[in-house]
């Protein structure tokens, strides 16, 4: 299910994680040649992706939320 990005944070391993409107988190790594997401490496790049949608596999599996999105506002 496609869900908009509402924010970002770093995890314990210092990798970027997208916070989705549905309340799930999803890693957004730039790890060439397997994953090409150079936009995640800069603040401006991450800001440009706010509101863009990612496919949330956690929603597809009906998993519980990772966070309460209403607390982000």
Distance between the termini: 22 Å
Mean pLDDT: 94
* CATH structural architecture: Beta Barrel
Output the CATH topology. Answer: OB fold (Dihydrolipoamide Acetyltransferase, E2P)
What is the ordering of alpha helices and beta strands?
A: EEEHEH
Radius of gyration based on Cα positions: 12 Å
Report the portion of residues in β strands: 25-35%
Please bin the fraction of helical residues. 10-25%
**Poorly predicted ranges:** none
Q: Find the structural class using helix and strand composition.
A: alpha+beta
Write a structural description.
The chain has a single domain, classed as OB fold (Dihydrolipoamide Acetyltransferase, E2P) (Beta Barrel), CATH 2.40.50. With 73 residues, it is an alpha+beta fold. 10% of the residues are buried. Strands 3-2-1-4 form a four-stranded antiparallel β-sheet. It is 15% helix and 27% strand. A hairpin with a 5-residue loop joins strand 1 and strand 2 (16-20). The longest helix is centred in the middle third of the chain and has 7 residues, at 43-49. The protein has helices at 43-49, 57-60; strands at residues 2-10, 16-20, 25-27, 53-55.
Write the layout of secondary structure elements.
Layout: E1 2-10, E2 16-20, E3 25-27, H1 43-49, E4 53-55, H2 57-60
Antiparallel strand pairs: 1-2, 1-4, 2-3
Keywords:
single chain; about 70 residues; alpha+beta; OB fold (Dihydrolipoamide Acetyltransferase, E2P); 4-stranded antiparallel beta sheet
Summarize the structure.
The protein is of the alpha+beta class and 73 residues long. It is 15% helix and 27% strand.
